[in-house]
Amino acid sequence: MNRKKDIEQLFRQHYAKMYNLARCILSDDDESKDVVSEVFAQILADDVVLVPESEEGYLMRSVRNRCLNLIAHKSVKERVAKLLLDDADVILSEETDERLDRLMLLIEDLEPPIRQLIFRLRYLQEKSYQEVADEVGVSKVTVFNHLSKAMDWIKKQFKRARQ
Question: What is the mean pLDDT of residues 16-35?
Answer without folding.
Answer: 91
